[in-house]
């Protein structure tokens, strides 16, 4: 059963540092919150918007790896980890709006509430959070100073998501009835990685239904309707500097997703780096005791420091 690997980036680590929790948005009855982590001090600091993964179906803002969080804080960053509404109760267009509103809230309220420099904001996410990170590269203004996507993706309409997945299809089938029992009709934000909602995701992958049930669009009959939602189709020369990290043995998000994004960034003349983890699977970065992973994370920190200078 591969789901524990799928959820690796959502597992609890060591106890996180003290945080402040704020409401950045209310959508109907759904309250969207942000956890702000900052080491003591009154100096103005750059900020990282951290976006959780979970296929846009599960996951929450508490899923940030505490070891990595500590390194971000030690490097002088303020980290803002946010929730967003989840699918299928909320469609992709509204999920992206939540991310845009979170970014706006950080820039507008961050200087007063937790002393950040609004001109120095980077976005970082993993898996579906990596996808949302790449989407901020063209959907928010002003654009982030830098993007870091761990095993993210730039194309949500391709066969990897719109056709039954061979890897997940080897697992016991999830019926339509079981899948829909794990979700509801009322908008929800924040569902831990052990949530039954994972079964809905497995159903989507086994049936190739993720684009239809999350984006609410059919890639076969509405291919152009996906244009606004695919980072791969929206790279321009003023897209932010981007770092992509991906394991070449990822059975959840194909390595080819980061490779295609890197090729498009190259074609458009956008500064970027692609860090390939040989043999790495989904959630490879949880092995923070692995020298290879530590080296990769050092590169992440160096990249962020370089682009978040005053």
Enter the CATH topology name: Rossmann fold
Mean pLDDT: 94
> How many domain regions?
1
Series of secondary-structure elements, N-terminal to C-terminal: HEEEHEHEHEHHHHHEHEH
CATH superfamily: Alpha/Beta hydrolase fold, catalytic domain
Q: Termini distance? A: 47 Å
How does CATH name the architecture?
A: 3-Layer(aba) Sandwich
CATH class: Alpha Beta
- Going across the biggest sheet, name each strand in turn: 1-2-4-3-5-6-7-8
Shape: globular
Helix and strand content put the structural class at alpha/beta
Task: Show unreliable segments.
Answer: 1-13
Radius of gyration: 18 Å
Percentage beta strand: 15-25%
Helix percent reads 25-40%
* Largest sheet composition: 8 strands, mixed
Number of helical stretches of at least 4 residues: 11
User: How many strands?
Assistant: 8
Describe the protein.
There is one protein chain. With 310 residues, the chain is of the alpha/beta class. The chain has a single domain, classed as Alpha/Beta hydrolase fold, catalytic domain (Rossmann fold, 3-Layer(aba) Sandwich), CATH 3.40.50. The chain has eleven helices and eight strands. It has helices at 3-6, 66-74, 92-114, 128-139, 159-162, 166-169, 176-181, 197-207, 210-215, 255-267, 291-307; strands spanning 19-27, 30-37, 45-51, 78-82, 116-126, 146-150, 242-247, 272-277. An eight-stranded mixed β-sheet has the order 1-2-4-3-5-6-7-8, with helices on both faces. Strand 5, helix 4 (128-139) and strand 6 (146-150) form a beta-alpha-beta unit. The protein is globular and about 55 Å long. The termini are far apart. Mean pLDDT is 94; it is low at 1-13.
